[in-house]
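I hope you will forgive my troubling you with a question about protein structure. The full record is reproduced below for your convenience:

——
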Amino acid sequence: LEMPFFIAWAYENLGILYRLQGKTKEAVEYFQAAKLIYEESGDLFDLAYIYQYMGKSYMNLADYEEGANYYLKSLNTLQLTTDTIAITDAHTNYGFALINLKNWSDATYHLQQAEKLTNAIGSRTMLPFIYTGLGKIYEQERKIALAESYFKQAVEIAMEFKDYANAVVYLIDLSRFYLRKGLLNDANQYAVQALSYQNFTSIYQQER
């Protein structure tokens, strides 16, 4: 491997470290430096993932336009490969970025593409996050029954795979959905369930 690759790798890892420390602006500077080298090298995966890191960073900075822009670059780059899982993730990331921009129709398209790819490769563990996104979109479009269905499916699939840590998040999303609809009994039911799994997850992690 040539020296520029190691320099880019160092910049990328420094960016990751700064981002984990909450120093997102500094992280972007290192990601930008790595990006310039990866664009020269032409390695599609390195380039796609640095675009993804930059997308996440700009989303953290609430610069949703720029975040979505980099997520789209990541998607376009990965579509030149045959890595279906990576492409699925890229569709999902871009779909959620578009939710932040309130571009409901395009967000729906990309999350539905992610759903199709996920089903095609038989990896149902990826579906709950996708379904949560679709639930949020349909709620905004006032398709309430459809939104409720997707929020519930997210919980059910996470529970099916005993993914209790994420199930807590999806239960809270479902509880908040009912709260926004004024359905307090349903909201309370799922909030209590989320709390019980949160406690279970904490105990499980301590015992490990």
